Amino acid sequence: MSHAHVRSLEITAAIITVSTTRTQENDTSGKTIETILRENKIPVTYYAIVPDQISEIRDAWFQAMKKANCIILNGGTGLTFDDCTIEAISPLLEKKIDGFGEFFRTKSIEQIGMAAMLSRAVAGITNGRAIFCIPGSTPAVTLATTELIVPTVAHILSHASK
Questions:
Q1: Which DSSP state fits 69?
Q2: What phi, psi does 18 have (nearest 5°)?
Q3: What is the mean pLDDT of residues 56-63?
């Protein structure tokens, strides 16, 4: 990726795990995201676990928007009746980054085969911040964070904050 458009800026991250079963003790996906970000010198300034409820997801998102410019929501992106992360966040995105979901699904085929088509991973920008909604499995968050988010977030924020 060309770095001609990347400005020097501080990246701070927020992690929101959407789940009715995860706790601070067993949120391996949230902890995996945090570890990958810290290894890449991106401090985590907000972390929350919220249930699969639109109002709870949005409340956490609004808090994260005050504290970080890279917001990663994991979980609640599937097709079950209670998965509602996409419904909660998509209307709040000023612009969607369609390629993020496309690349995530393409890369996921290598790990999970055709089940990758069930992923509703989404990314976009709002108020100069980058927002990523990814599945909550540990392999999915590892893939998304290491191969898509970390390598591109500075470029995304450089454009989003102009």
A1: S
A2: -105, 110
A3: 98
Instruction: List, as one string, the DSSP characters of 72-83.
Output: EEES--SSSTT-
Structure tokens at 26: 């067993």
Amino acid at site 125? I
Report if pTM > 0.90.
yes
> How many CA atoms lie less than 13 Å away from 73 in the CB half-sphere?
37
Q: What is d(CA 110, CA 91) in angstroms, rounded to the nearest whole number?
A: 30
Task: Write down the pLDDT at residue 115.
Answer: 87
Mode of pairing for the β-strands spanning 13-18 and 70-74: parallel
Radius of gyration in angstroms for the set of CA atoms belonging to the chain, rounded to a whole number = 14
The answer to whether 6 and 154 have CB atoms below 8 angstroms apart is yes
